[in-house]
Amino acid sequence: MTRKLLILQHVPWERPALLGDILTAHGVEWELDNVVTATSREALPRLDELSGVVILGGPMGALDAGAHPGLGLEADLVREAFDGGVPLLGICLGHQIVATALGAALHSGAADEVGMGEVTVAADDAAFGRAGTSQPVLHWHHDVVEAPDGATVVASTAQTPNQAFRIGDAVFATQFHPEIDARMLGEWLAVPEMAEDLSADVARTVAADFAAAEARMRPLADAAFGAFAGAARSRL
């Protein structure tokens, strides 16, 4: 059986971007799906059909399964994948869905991090580097999630202590957006739902600030997504 990597999307403007490019470069086939309105587990592939699972970002809350029933299906898939040792990657909302599905608490509206910033590396990590160093990132969130039991937090900020975490070699999640490239940022800035989230100061400078930091951000994406691709390839 040829397995594919499933990438779950919540809104059209949240795309894999660099993540998709890196997966393809590593020979990992992937498919994009959106199950936000689905109500049956049959909307998602069986676990034995998957080489890995990615959950992207979106504007809804991680626990809003009442309004968006597919989020509950995604949480079920997270638990299945975790129990089955299937590689898991979560970004922004996906980070929160992975964490809450594994028992972590969510704090709605606990942060105001939108735009360019830096995270502090909280533990030595193959992708992030040495503990105590910093990494430029693009933030776009207000909710904060704690780390699930057994996780190692590898990046943090004052507002969001759990900016990224790992559980062993199979689970990796980031609150910020390592997948974004300049093209997708430009698309986000043209989407009213995204642009409305920016302060006037950030709206004026975010594109230039991103361009100035892009060369420092790319190695993290290459390392983190490359390692995830390697984990997925082990199931092909």
TrEMBL record:
Task: List the SUPFAM superfamilies hit by this protein, alphabetically.
Answer: Class I glutamine amidotransferase-like
Query: What is any Pfam family matched here?
Result: GATase
* Origin species: Conyzicola lurida
- Gene Ontology molecular-function annotations: GMP synthase (glutamine-hydrolyzing) activity
What this protein is called in its record is GMP synthase (Glutamine-hydrolyzing)
Domain Glutamine amidotransferase intervals? 36-182
Which InterPro entries does this entry report, sorted A to Z? ChyE-like (IPR044992), Class_I_gatase-like (IPR029062), GATASE (IPR017926)
The family database entries (PANTHER family) matched by this protein are listed as:
GLUTAMINE AMIDOTRANSFERASE YLR126C-RELATED
Q: Report the EC number(s), separated by commas if there are several.
A: 6.3.5.2
User: Record's CDD domains?
Assistant: GATase1_1 (cd01741)
Task: For this UniProt record, give its keywords in alphabetical order, as a comma-separated list.
Answer: Ligase
* Alphabetized PROSITE patterns for the sequence: GATASE_TYPE_1
Superkingdom is Bacteria
Q: Gene Ontology terms, cellular component aspect?
A: cytosol
